[in-house]
Amino acid sequence: MCMKKIFLFAVVVCILHIGCDKVPDETDLGQVKDVIVKQVDGICGDAIFEIMDTNYKSLGEQNFEYKGVIYNGVFSTSTTCANLTPIAYNDTNPTTKYYKVTISKSPLSTCSIAICMATLSKMPTIRFYIK
Question: What is the pTM of this model?
Answer without folding.
Answer: 0.68
